[in-house]
Fold these 2 entries.
Entry 1:
Amino acid sequence: MRALRLALVASECAPFAKTGGLADVLLGLGRWLGKPGPEGGGHDVRVFLPFYKRIAASGLATQPVPGAQDLDVRFPQRTIRFSLRQAPLPHSRVPAWFVDCPELYGRDGIYTEDGDESLRFAMLCRAVLETCQRLQWSPDVVHCNDWHTGLLPLYLRTLYAWDRLFANTKTLLAIHNIGYQGLFADSHLDMLGLGEQRAHVHHGDLQGGRVSFLKTGVLHATRLCTVSRTYAREIQTAEYGMGMEELLRTRSQDLVGIVNGVDYGDWDPAQDPLIPHHFSADAPHGKAKMKAALLNRFQLPHDPRAPVFAVVSRLTAQKGFELFADALPVFLQREDMRLCVLGSGDQKHEDYFQWLRDTWPHKVGLYRGFQEELAHWIEAGSDVFLMPSRFEPCGLNQMYSLRYGTPPIVRRTGGLADTVEAWDPATRRGTGFLFDEFSSQAFAGTIDWALRNWRDQRGWQQMMQNGMRRDFSWHKQGPEYVALYQSMLG
Ligand code: ADP
Ligand code: GLC
């Protein structure tokens, strides 16, 4: 099997630019694919992402990519210049190739609500293709991720179709979250150089005066994937497809679900450099110390018998936080428990957790914002992880919590259904707690069930062990991607 030339393109890649799991996946998959020897894929990989202001300002040492400086990309109304800078992914030789274009990416956020948001990500797609041309690097597969890269397959089929360099290049579009589709007024097509390609854009959308980047990608990518088997099925239904179900059903044969891997180089309590006390399935004692340290950090009273519940999340509708409103107060009132929350997002959810914190200051700890280190502390120092998502394409946090000995309570949807197994005290099998119906009653019933199991500490330790010994590594999941790439190349 020859090494493949793979371009991974995305709006996020940890640790450089991260708002959620997409960033972790780009880092972990990119690193694994490029790793030589039996431990990795041994492929020729480059990860493309914008050189956001925050990366430029972070002090990261980057080098110009020789031959890829001051490249012009012509759009109908303007020509935009970029240069490529590079830095290896941490603990890897795989290069991150940053599209340095201050006029588009020199802004405060990764995402913006500016009028040229469509152009910012259309530019990312074109910069990838322009770079390949300039360096005469012919990718076997361009692996696109989410709506930000949705136009790339269409650009390749139209504006770049003349170039024999891409004659054998295939495109894979990975859907990490169908809740974000990149919807813009159809007038943007002219600005993006696709005015003459309207026939290739989804007709129904055009009739409504819109264009969807994600749908355009679904129409034109060679293959499609998403990040769990269950989600691959779900998005073809009206309940989860967010208006894309019909289109996805027409491409059902080309759509597969591959559960995300975990990079245990970053997320393993035995060696995690971001936590002060280490532990593993074979030597679990550090976990109790982490619990004490976490409660101390949140200035909450420590009692080893009181379970610590945890939330680390983007605070958005996807994550099911409206279920907390009816479910949580009863337990906080009744039980000797703690709740540690790390998150940012919708104001109403932030306000709700603030209210919980103000009402039960000795039981609830809250950090509003994004804090990588604290995310690791919470995974390590808690007893139960809460993830009652309305939908969840894959979810990484529940897999992290399994490894950190923090059994999760999850709703049986998407990747949560594929990665958490219900604890059965009779057989002592299982890794966490699941519920089906999206209701506060079902959620509360499951919290209650978890608390009853907490009282049987021997059983609980077994459940922790079961979870800590599960293997969701890229070493296991990565080959599924390679098989997919290979199948695309025929
Ligand atoms: P999603 O991608 O939908 O946000 P995932 O579970 O796949 O959900 O991934 C979430 C990732 O983002 C995890 O690495 C998690 O630790 C991280 N994360 C989410 N919110 C925060 C936060 N407020 N601070 C630090 N890390 C966070
Ligand atoms: C998305 C999904 C999440 C998934 C992540 C990485 O943000 O919401 O479920 O784990 O992408 O694929």
Entry 2:
Amino acid sequence: MKKNVRKAIIAGNWKMNKTRPEAKALLEEIKPLVANAGEVEVVACVPFTNLETAIAATEGTNVKIGAENVHFEKSGAFTGEISADMLTELGVEYVVIGHSERRQYFGETDETVNKRTKAALAAGLKPIVCVGELLWERECNITQEVIARQIKLDLYDISAEDVKRTVIAYEPVWAIGTGKTATADQAEEVCALIRSILSELYDEATSQAVTIQYGGSMNAANCAELLSKENVDGGLIGGASLKANDFNTIVQAAVNG
Ligand code: PGA
């Protein structure tokens, strides 16, 4: 991480886990543990139903709250969807967009990721845009093309100022929830590639300012090595974010890294 140049962000992605009382209990455990995180941004991205509880539970602390998705229209006949304004009105700061589970199971495309990212930015949210290759894409040696395509399409027509408020999460799909982590070198290689694409699309200074996270089975045991890499500026953590001590170990690795 280059903490002197860009923000380190450790974000939990709780996915479809925790009822409201469970969410409150987990945050109560996390809060004192991460209170000394200093410059490292600590975020919990929680199910929509937990947002209000999570915001109330973390008020006045250094834990920021994010949602796990957002719709791109402002309002209207979109049954079951949640708009960016609905999130900001609650006090939500971050939103995960284009997670591979949404791409795989819910028909998310780069076009909709781009629309959601623009809507989030327009409302003042900080999007965490997820990209990553499938296992067979890596095996076919097209990781670079896949990532370049996703970054270019997902960030289409987004200004340099806005991209500086955008977090990119590199999450190789084969590493998510599988216990198979990318090696620190594999993570660094793709995070550096993402930064070079940002430099091409924008400019060097802009690319240096963007936080690029690694995600995919990051845990208490492997976080220090991953976070020691120059272009890995944090983590998007699934399973390990549901255990306060493990999540805190990752936060502390970022603090010390
Ligand atoms: P995992 O999930 O840490 O459980 O692999 C990461 C993610 O999906 O963001």
